[in-house]
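Filed under: proteins

Residues; backbone shape codes:
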Amino acid sequence: MITFSDDQKMKIFPATLKGITLRWFMGFGAKSIATWDDVNTIFLEKYQDYYKAQDVKEEILNIRQKEDENVKHFVEHF
């Protein structure tokens, strides 16, 4: 497994972004993001709720009534 130093991560990270996310990140400028911990903090503050919402949406869309499950129990589960 390849491991990267925090400095390498700082250089590579922008290449993993695209579109609006890349423009948002580049808007900070080099001086306002000094460490990998800074990157983690600002990125998670901005996008963590979005990913949580996507996970919940996917979970809801995949809920199926079981063969032996009555409608009342299914609705409660849903």
